Structure formats: C-alpha cells, structure tokens
Amino acid sequence: MPYPLRYTQAGYVFLDPDDDCQAAARALRDTGYNEEFCLARDFDVPFIADLMASGFLVMSEYIVSDTPGEPGFLILLPKHHLIRSCLFFPELHIKKSIRPLLSRYELRFDTNFDLIIDKCLATHGDGWLTAPLVQVIRDMRKDASLPARPVSFGLYRDGKLRAGEFGIIAGKVYTSYSGYYEEDNTGTVQMVLTSKYLENHGFAFWDLGMPLDYKLTLGAREIGRDEFMERFWPV
C-alpha cells in the first residue's frame, strides 16, 4: 500500500513528526512528485534528524504575513532535490594551481563547530538557516542516538581558521550545508582536503546538494532523485 502523503492546497507535501520520513521520501519518488520542497512546521530535534537521515536537506524560512499587523511565521522546507551534485571520490579533480597549496594548510574535523556555523551565518546571512533551525542543529550534537549528526570541517594555516563548512553525516554519506572562506583559494583547498578525509574514513560519497559550476569543476556528478536514493539508503 502506498505511503499516505498529505498535500497542501498549493500541492506541496506536508510532513510532521508522526510521519515515517524515509517512507515519505520513497513516496516522493514513487508518486513522481515533481517539486523539490516539502513543507513542515515542527522544529522538533528528532523529527529534523529523521528528515536528514532520510535524504532531505532541511532548510527553513520566515514567512511574512499578507495581512498588515499580523505576525509572520516560520516554516521548515525539507528539500529532496530532483537533481543533486554528488562527488564520488575517485572522480575528484584537483586543478594544477591548487595542488601546491594543499600542503600549506591543515584540515581539522569537527574541532570548532560553533565558530564555523557562526562564520557561515556572518557570510551568507540567515535567509534559509534561521535561528530556530540553527538551534536544532546545535541541539542535535548533544544526542548521539540520533540518526544524523552535524559536524564541521575547518581549514587552518599557522594555527588560524581560514575556511570551513558544516554539514550532516547520515550513515556513510556526508551532506554539505554551508561554508565560507577568508582567503583566496581556501574554499577549494578545504573541499579537496575534505574529500580526501571522507574517502579515507570510509564514506560512500559526498552529497553537495544543488548543482553549481564550482562543484562540477571539482569532479562532482549530477544524479537524479532515483539514483540518489539507491545510493543513499544501501549505505
């Protein structure tokens, strides 16, 4: 029997903590749901962790009321991409101009999470990474029993943080959420060293989310929702 998805009047799938998030994700595929976003209202730590562990990239947004004087409200936007950019480690491409820089920097895994997420917010703002979602992500780190774990990667030179990113580990897949850099080329160096770290620690692949040119230049491949699910859940 198909999983009973619920829809808003606008045609978006609505999810809440009572849902089986993995079954819902499979139903998106099986029903041919042609949107990338679903909607949710609950900023509940286990619920959001389950969404992440089911292949959703969880975003959020503040909705301004159409009625003057009425307060707006926050929503969750669990995103299950129609097309994802994924890096399979043997396909990593390192530009010749980047190779000499790799030895000048040190990559540190999950040593300065709070600072890195703060720097991402300072760089990119909180348009989709709203304060309640950030708090949920921080709270997830306090519960090792959850099926998804937020972590960070920091790039250091001379003991100082020069670039970094944070994301989510679910099973053997790491999904990027946001990153920043403070020196030329350090964003690329950080990504190359992160890729090598993930490969050396037994990860299956790196989920880079929305396709962008710089990801393709690094060697990432664009895959559809069906292939992503086949690769994401077996690992």
TrEMBL record:
**Key words, A-Z:** Acyltransferase, Cytoplasm, Transferase
Matching entries from Pfam families are given as:
Leu_Phe_trans (PF03588)
Q: State any single GO MF term.
A: leucyl-tRNA--protein transferase activity
Query: Listed GO cellular component terms?
Result: cytoplasm
Q: Which SUPFAM superfamilies match?
A: Acyl-CoA N-acyltransferases (Nat)
One of the GO BP terms on file: protein catabolic process
* Coiled coil (UniProt feature): none
Domain of life assignment: Bacteria
Name of the protein described by the UniProt record: Leucyl/phenylalanyl-tRNA protein transferase
Q: Which organism is it from?
A: Leadbettera azotonutricia (strain ATCC BAA-888 / DSM 13862 / ZAS-9)
